[in-house]
Amino acid sequence: MAKKAAILEPALAEIREFCADNSSEANAKRYARFFTEGYDAYGIPKEVWESNRTRFYQKYKDRLGLQDFLDLGDLLFGSGKYEEGSFAIVSVQEMLDVFTPETFQRVGMWLEHGVRNWAHSDVICGMLLGPCLKKGLVAIEDLSGWRASGSKWKRRAVPVSMLALLEGKRKPGAWLKFLQPLMLDRERVVHQGMGWFLREVWKQSPAPVEAFLLKWKDQAPRLIFQYATEKMTSSEKQRFRKAK
Length: 244
Prior knowledge:
Layout: H1 2-21, H2 25-32, H3 46-52, H4 55-60, H5 66-78, H6 82-93, H7 101-113, H8 118-134, H9 152-162, H10 172-179, H11 188-204, H12 206-216, H13 222-228, H14 234-238
Helix pairs in contact: 1-5, 5-6, 5-7, 6-8, 7-8, 7-9, 8-9, 9-11, 11-12, 11-13
């Protein structure tokens, strides 16, 4: 453990020094309005972030392997600071080609013990988890246990990660059956993720999605339907109103 700390501490200290040196309280306050669950950030300006996002990966890639960057990510997410978590994500993304199914599950632990907002959850899905599903490194069945996770972010990640599958062979029936356990979820962020996925599938395969929505219209949270039917006409939306 001491050896591991000695390897990671220089990178951790340098990242935190960089974040503090480029902090902006005004920026942090400006972006906080997008995060109802709270937003603890340095407020690094966008242009500074974009020009330095892979800086620490490039500097330490010859000394740190994938497991080291994952461990470093644990420490970065542990602070609760938005940009520190973001550095963890973009650094690990650089090593996506050497991901294994075990790496996929390991990244999933960030959703349980590190992620505190929808932005990190969705970026992890889009940059790390979705690509693994798309290229077949893992299957949706590998997300089975995530549907009952104690973390709302991990449950949200199930449909949001599956958005990557829309670019391949369509299997709407199998996808909808798999997602049924989340239709009665109690968390708003999960409702939003489910509705988002259903809306995107509907654009490609409307019939199975509409049948699915009709099945759940009197039981599932209305926010799912608000998102899922967003692109429908007013008359189409009427079919999915909850019975009085």
